[in-house]
Amino acid sequence: MAPEIEKVKVLIIGSGPAGYTAAIYAARAGMNPVLYTGGQPGGQLTITTDVENYPGYPDGIMGPEMMEDFRKQAERFGTKVRYGLVTKVDFNVQPHQVIVDDQVEIHADTVIISTGASAKWLGIESEERLNGKGVSACAVCDGFFFKGQDVAIVGAGDTACEEASYLANICNKVYMIVRRDEMRASQIMQKRVMNNPKIEILWNTETEEILGEEEVIGARVKNNVTREVRELKVSGFFVAIGHQPNTDIFKEFINMDESGYIKTIPGSTKTNIEGVFACGDAQDHIYRQAVTAAGTGCMAALDAERYLASKE
User: Fold this and answer.
1) Which neighbouring-strand residues pair with 73?
2) Is 281 annotated as catalytic?
3) Which one of 109, 142, 284, 303 is the catalytic residue?
4) Run of H or E residues at 303
């Protein structure tokens, strides 16, 4: 039996700050948006404990609680929030066709992509167990909690160098764990960390385990040339080996950069496909903050509204 087809004006794929903000604006504009949460309802913030850098929360807020607030606000204005994963799209037809969970077919006049990105992890058990208890993939989000303490960061690209420099401003000491005898980062970024007295670079080094039961108390690292093992006394452990945008499903239709981030027309959220807009971390590999994601979510809803008005 063929799936029942549902027609919608605005379909939002993904439910982080970008998706929910797009939903709030689209719903208030009377566009009756339908939002599918994806596999991680609330996005990356649901695995973040304290959010202290989002305006309007003077005492900070827990990530999951904040996303719950976003969802309630979107629903209050009439957004239909549904749990489900988009499994197939066809953006070559108008209206755009989207299949959810291989069974629901939706025909959407406009689609807002807010599928976010996922941090890449080292893949060790202790990293998963201590995630949010001293292990973090965002120094800008969580560095503040380690003010005046010793921390470690893994990575060798521009982001890792940037985050190491950021941490050095607020922490006592930063160990930078680099797997090879060189970095991928640009020369200027390398110079910055090498010249910073608070940053100690551990070359040819890999993490064997993050130490601690309830919270991070250290890290065991091994030099992959000399085989020497040492324990670093740190209370924070940051992983900066990159992010993977959750955009694979759109590759056939949407223009992306070599890492898979969606390309939008500068100053807008428009993609190369008419009526398809992208916001949040799926298209932003530079800032990657909740507040910037929310900002682009607002832009996407306004862009969709203008697009629909131009078609009427």
Assistant:
1) none
2) no
3) 142
4) helix 290-311
Rounded (5°) CA angle 30-105-280: 55
DSSP assignment, residue 167?
H
Helix (H) or strand (E) holding 18: helix 17-28
- CA–chain centroid gap for 278, Å, is 14
Strand partners, 112: 12, 277
Options 50, 69, 90, 138, the catalytic residue = 138
Supply the CATH classification number for the domain 122-240: 3.50.50.60
Nearest to 130 by CA among 122, 39, 281: 122
Pairing of strands 199-202, 173-177: parallel
Strands (E) in the chain, as ranges, are 5-13, 34-36, 50-51, 61-62, 80-82, 86-90, 96-100, 104-113, 117-119, 135-136, 150-154, 173-177, 199-202, 205-211, 218-223, 229-232, 236-239, 243-245, 276-278
Contact by Cβ (8 Å): 120, 244:
yes
248 is catalytic: no
Is residue 161 part of the annotated active site? The answer reads no
Residue among 115, 112, 94 at smallest CA distance from 27: 112
Select which of 109, 141, 279, 303 is catalytic. Answer: 141
CB 229 within 8 A of CB 211: no
Question: Domain residue spans in the chain?
Answer: 6-118+243-310, 122-240
pLDDT in tens, the chain (312 residues): 566 799 999 999 999 999 999 999 999 999 999 999 987 777 777 766 678 889 999 999 988 899 999 999 999 999 999 999 999 999 999 999 999 998 899 999 999 999 999 889 999 999 999 998 999 998 988 999 999 999 999 999 988 999 999 999 999 999 999 999 999 999 999 999 999 999 999 999 999 999 999 999 999 999 999 999 999 999 999 999 988 999 999 999 999 999 999 999 999 999 999 999 999 999 998 888 999 999 999 999 999 999 999 998
The answer regarding whether domain 6-118+243-310 maps to CATH 3.50.50.60 reads yes
